[in-house]
């Protein structure tokens, strides 16, 4: 009997250690009152608000690509920043990649409605723990539809792998929020 209790205790401690070690990132979803996200068929990825603080951190171009690539885990139809930039270049003759950040953001917001129903703007806070803030806005009106905050673990570095995992968390929660809102109707 004593041996059985010891084995059960070891099993419980092992399971607890595995759960604690595999804990997900801390996150928070905010859906403003009255916001409807179920009618968003195409999401465009905007240029992130990000400053590279370490040599090992991805550049802003790589981060933009990481956010687009992470969408593969969801059913959402994603329009990349490069596709929107190319469309604006073709339609308006404006190269937003060559413009200063603020001016490029203004032109992007004014023209993104031609390419997507809503757009994502990622803000990266590089504190002791990297935090991603994903804001989804309706194209044209720039109405805030959805916000998602996800914080990396303290042990995670500012690497492409960490940034990809945080971006995947956004898409998973976006899909879950759309499904939840569909069920609520």
Written description of the protein model:
By secondary structure, this protein is α/β, with parallel strands linked by helices. The protein has helices at 2-21, 60-69, 81-92, 101-111, 160-184; strands spanning 26-30, 42-45, 77-79, 118-126, 130-138, 144-151. The chain has one domain: 3-Layer(aba) Sandwich (Rossmann fold), CATH 3.40.50. The chain has five helices and six strands. It has a six-stranded mixed beta sheet with strand order 1-6-5-4-2-3. Strand 2 (42-45), helix 2 and strand 3 (77-79) form a beta-alpha-beta unit. Helix 2 packs across helix 5. The protein is globular. Mean pLDDT is 87; it is low at 17-23.
Task: Give descriptors for this structure.
single chain, 185 residues, alpha/beta, Rossmann fold, 6-stranded mixed β-sheet, 42% helix, globular
């Amino acid at each position: 009997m004593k041996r059985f209790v010891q084995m059960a205790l070891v099993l419980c401690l092992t399971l607890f250690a595995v759960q604690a070690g595999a804990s997900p990132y801390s996150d928070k979803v905010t859906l403003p009152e009255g916001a409807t996200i179920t009618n968003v068929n195409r999401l465009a990825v905007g240029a992130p608000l990000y400053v590279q603080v370490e040599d090992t951190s991805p550049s802003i171009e790589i981060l933009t690509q990481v956010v687009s690539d992470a969408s593969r885990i969801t059913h959402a139809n994603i329009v990349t920043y490069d596709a929107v930039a190319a469309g604006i270049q073709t339609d308006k003759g404006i190269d937003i990649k060559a413009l200063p950040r603020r001016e490029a953001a203004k032109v992007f917001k004014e023209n993104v409605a031609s390419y997507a129903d809503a757009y994502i703007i990622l803000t990266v806070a590089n504190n002791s723990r990297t935090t991603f803030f994903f804001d989804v806005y309706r194209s044209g009106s720039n109405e805030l539809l959805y916000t998602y905050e996800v914080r990396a673990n303290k042990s995670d570095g500012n690497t492409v792998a960490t940034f990809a995992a945080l971006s995947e968390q956004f898409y998973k929660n976006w899909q879950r929020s759309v499904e939840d809102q569909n069920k609520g109707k």
